[in-house]
Design goal:
The protein is α/β, with parallel strands linked by helices. 37% of the residues lie in helices and 11% in strands. It starts with a helix and ends with a helix.
Length: 302
């Protein structure tokens, strides 16, 4: 999907010193499950919160295919109605500086997205080859890693079960944002408490697909600063963990609560402050939207 000439002119005008107002806020809690989630809403599945004005709802998706299809439908509906969207995803959009060049020959995060889209297999029932992909990447280096940890019983040749020393790589173990965000996990831990590498391996191909589907209508912050009616950004619900827990409804699954509250918090920001937060960070490694501004986000929750 591409902009029409009129739409493109409108959004370029918004980019000339005028802050674009976001109408719809979508927050996604991703999952690296290798089978469909249960029919009944369950933790560690995909939850997608959507908020427009004072109206909001949370959708439960059993597979990544279903979640991607749902997002495409909701994005297309918003575009048809002239609404502008911020979609936040709770996994890293990039890797430490130098990783992209080592993997693809270009220090470009979108080159990694495209490489992942070509290499990762992830079917309609969540069966995937993420461990094989991590093994393939690790095989490029003489040192053990950078990806590590795997389920008991799996024996990938190049993925160590325990964390090895991160030495001998042309990139750091962590992004700068992970040095700042308290409790943030490295992009390279595949399994275990707090691990996010598997979600990233299975998430980046989906972001690439959205970008391909919507074309110029999508811009990714902070990698791109051009105006577009759909903005994608990395989020980290843990920056509001106490506020989310305090607002969790009786019987509500924590994953659903965190995207619901996160959507509400971002929706309450003044447009200029939201714009500033989305543009902050490194254009190679990426950044967590709202990091360092938890107080402002919480204030909007009331």
């Amino acid at each position: 999907m591409q902009f029409s000439g009129t739409d493109l002119a409108l959004y370029c005008w918004f980019g000339k010193g005028v802050t674009m107002v976001i109408d719809t806020f979508i927050m996604v809690d991703w999952s690296a499950r290798s089978a469909p989630s249960p029919l009944k809403r369950s933790k560690d599945a995909i939850f997608i919160a959507e908020r427009t004005g004072r109206d909001g709802h949370v959708t439960y998706c059993r597979t990544r295919d279903a979640a991607t299809a749902h997002l495409i439908t909701r994005f297309e509906a918003a575009l048809a109605e002239g609404r502008r969207i911020l979609a936040g995803f709770d996994f890293p959009f990039g890797y430490p500086a130098g990783f992209a060049a080592a993997l693809t020959g270009r220090d470009d995060p979108f080159a990694v997205w495209a490489w992942m889209a070509q290499t990762v297999a992830d079917d309609a029932r969540n069966a995937n080859n993420r461990l094989d992909v991590a093994d393939q990447i690790n095989a490029r280096f003489d040192a053990p890693g950078p990806f590590w940890s795997h389920p008991t019983g799996k024996t990938p040749v190049h993925v160590p079960f325990r964390k090895p020393p991160h030495r001998g790589f042309p990139f750091a173990e962590r992004r700068q944002v992970e040095m700042v965000a308290k409790g943030a996990s490295t992009c390279f831990q595949l399994f275990g408490n707090g691990a996010v590498a598997s979600q990233t391996l299975l998430g980046l191909p989906r972001l690439h697909a959205l970008k391909q589907h919507f074309g110029d209508a999508v811009a990714v912050r902070p990698f791109e600063d051009r105006p577009a009616p759909i903005l994608l950004a990395e989020v980290y619900p843990s920056i509001l963990s106490a506020a989310i827990k305090a607002r969790q409804r009786p019987g509500e699954i924590p994953d659903a609560a965190q995207v619901r509250v996160l959507a509400q918090a971002f929706a309450a920001l003044p447009p200029d402050r939201l714009d500033t937060m989305l543009r902050a960070g490194d254009r190679v490694e990426g950044w967590i939207a709202g990091l360092g501004h938890a107080d402002e986000l919480i204030d909007g929750l009331g």
